[in-house]
Amino acid sequence: MKKLTRTECAEYLRAHDDYVILTHARPDGDTIGSASALCSALRRMGKRASLFPNPEITERYKAFAAPYIEPDRADAIHISTDIAEAKLFPVGFEGSVSIAIDHHPKNPDFTENGLLLDGDKASCGEIVMDVIELLCGALTKDEANLIYVALSTDCGCFQYGNTKSDTHIAAAKLIDCGADTMPLNKELFRSFSFARLRLEGKVYENMRSTRNNALNIAVITRKMMKESGVTEDDCDDLANLAGKVRGNRVAVTVREQKDGKSHASVRTDGSVDASEICARFGGGGHRMASGCSSDMPPYELADAIERVVNELWPE
After folding, report:
1. What percent of the chain lies above the pLDDT cut of 70?
2. Burial 91-123 (b: 16+ CB within 10 A, else e)
3. Which pLDDT value is given to residue 315?
4. Which CATH superfamily is 6-189 part of?
5. What fold is seen in the domain 194-312?
6. Strands 49-51 vs 19-22: parallel, antiparallel or unpaired
7. The predicted structure's pLDDT at residue 198
């Protein structure tokens, strides 16, 4: 593994040209905001840069990514942002990655030229912000907005356990650069369709709570989604619904996928390592937030994860 410093990453980006930046499968605000802000900065430097056309970008994030998306170029230098492992490459990408920028501590390094990794950061966006400052001196207002999308979504608008003093300091710097935090907070955290709210009602009605509300497990099936009328654009941040129960310490959300498989998201307060739980099913992530996928039906996967939680976190 070749680990890069921020300065070394900036030097590489300054020395080369023609970049395509990758976002991960089922892209969230961190990967979209990080990639778009970096693309903007590279273009300001006169570099050719674009985002890989990830087909899974939802409506909520399309406006942020759209100005930067172009068709992939086979001879371009591919940079990844917020991609924890190679199996999370976007649908349709088959090349290699030159440099990865990431904040997932267990990133195995799938790059050709090095990994810029800082597992202490709440978001990849904070690392990208540092790189942009090294490249350009300061962020533009648009870049500040994009990094705020990255930072705020990955720390749950500063409510998750990964929020540190550095997270707030980074947010303050973004505000000083002109980030429009009020409209962004409303769009990202307080605006939902009626269909999404109907789905949330079904989730809460069927949620399983044990250990005096410390462990909460939500299962979301394709049937529930169809009955609610939701689309993929309505399904951001479903992983955090189970954690809203008072007394929660471990929240599990299992969602049935179109192909019949299931994806699980695990959120904890640190009492148990979420990445250790998900590793049992071939996944990973952070201590307080991890995910995994399985061929098991959703309720079967939920039962299996509950057994692992109880094993790793005895009462």
Report:
1. 100
2. eebebebbbbbbbbeebeebbebbbbbeeebbb
3. 73
4. inorganic pyrophosphatase (n-terminal core) (3.90.1640.10)
5. Diaminopimelate Epimerase; Chain A, domain 1 (3.10.310)
6. parallel
7. 96
